[in-house]
């Protein structure tokens, strides 16, 4: 390990110098703009500066810039001088840890200042516009919405004293309880043999019909005649070109680059009773607002969810209706802090809003549960079942609040433990359960640990959970869930139905799903997907909803048990016609057929393998097939470890992307060529592994390392790692324009 070069003390000094540089880069522009130097008051007059708003995520008292400035001189500079004066012989003592903590906490405090955030937002707008990431209007609106959130999370996670100084080995890592690998599950109770699915056609009164609607994204601003290719994230709405000025004017019945107008939703809901005369339950798996995430505010969200609920009230009152919350329901999008962060941020405004807007469909208890944490369980004694509506935003990896929650909170809002309790109660009472959620935990959307936890729960209660309904991806997909903690061969134990979206955004035809359910077992025996070809509807000026397929006939399935879905995924590998059919219906025959598009680096077979791996819950690098020959070679995007934000910022991740060769092999991989959590491990920590430590660890290993070192400069990892961290951190500030540099 001594090829990592310089000893701990010199690396530590380098680290501290780096921190000081960054600190200075943060402080100097702030001071240079707002502080008084002599008699000269420097006023800020940036042309793109949005009106300065207080950070909404700070509720407690803040220090003034002057106070911070004073602390910097009082606390840090004397320590640095002392350190420098004593030179290389300085031992690693608690003083160094204290100094690091002091610097780190100053960085955090500076990041939380309104002035710092205002500058960062302004520089962000410059970069966003200059590099044409988005048009100016979008850049100027989106950055003030996300900037304070991101900086608050960074200041309290990546740049927290615990993290920075612990990772630098200057302070001991805080003693957080480890999150469990296996979760506590009550032992299975002996039960009667499983009732097998009856394949013979059941009588009508032995069936139930359930409608599944997902990802509505209703856009009240959709306007016929406005530009379809407007250059913003979604189009077909003012203020973009209209009439003669529009090169591609939006059609009356929707466009593939836009969210959905009211008339399409209404035509769908009017059509529905024609094909489902008797609906038993209606399920909605979230995402109600349009994709204009740059413009959304709490009040615009309340307005759109209210408008959507009014449409529901008009059409969806003939059967019990169960909606859940998607990631788009919040403003900013994806922002779902847990109640442990209540001093920083809260999403109770949304829970209260939805609870009151959904009052005609949910009971008092269910609404109360939504108001508390955004999830609920509905007992349906007449059918001897319960429907559990989860708030899956707590496992969504773009809900950045999750990076900031206390480490002990491995189960945010206790939702998984609550789910286990609900399932256990249901099992004891002989009830069946359907699970609803916006996004499933077992693909790349969830943090990896939730992939494992959710699979464990599904495996334990596989006889009780007979339906799982999700959305989010807008494609028409399914996801097989396996029991991979029990025995050698992973067994398929569940299937998540990812319903097609109501919206046509992006490159899909609007659709809805109807499930045929066996009343006795509450199991799904077939499903039917209906769609509207919007291109045809625009051409004929007439919406014609049609049956796209019924799944049992289409794939000649024996039944809709998890094993059959696993077998179907197996069939895709050898039967290309079946796979092409699946690909085509994923977008509901949309002409571009974008689902499962291959990238430039893979053959069509590799591309197919990648999609099949995804259907088998292995996309995040976890799951029973992640080390399987089929999957391991072709998942070229490594999954993001739980603290991906931290690792990306601290350099480990970027090194892997920049120079895979350096990190492949036995020291950084487990030999399967597939980077996983452990592989990313602690490469930064390795930077600080000292010669002294290696000396203590024994001679054998050292001997080998010394031989290796003959061929290599002994600081190669240092050059790869540490300066890059500093350069990247500094670059963000320097690239922001000359305003960010001292002058
Ligand atoms: Zn969506």
From TrEMBL:
Biological process, per Gene Ontology: ceramide biosynthetic process
GO terms under cellular component: extracellular space; membrane
| InterPro entries in alphabetical order | ASM_C, ASMase/PPN1_MPP, Calcineurin-like_PHP, Metallo-depent_PP-like, Saposin-like, SaposinB_dom
- Give the location in the cell: Secreted
Picking any one GO molecular function of the record gives:
metal ion binding
Q: Which domain of life is it from?
A: Eukaryota
Residue span of region Disordered: 667-716
UniProt cross-references to CDD domains, sorted A to Z: MPP_ASMase (cd00842)
- Transmembrane segments annotated in the record for this chain: 12-31
Cofactors: Zn(2+)
For bias kind Acidic residues, which ranges apply? 667-682
- Entry keywords, A to Z: Disulfide bond, Glycoprotein, Glycosidase, Hydrolase, Membrane, Metal-binding, Secreted, Signal, Transmembrane, Transmembrane helix, Zinc
- Residue ranges of the Saposin B-type domain? 93-175
Q: What's one Pfam family here?
A: Metallophos
Q: Which PROSITE patterns match?
A: SAP_B
- Describe the family membership recorded for this protein in Swiss-Prot or TrEMBL: Belongs to the acid sphingomyelinase family.
Q: Which PANTHER family match?
A: SPHINGOMYELIN PHOSPHODIESTERASE
Record-given protein name: Sphingomyelin phosphodiesterase-like
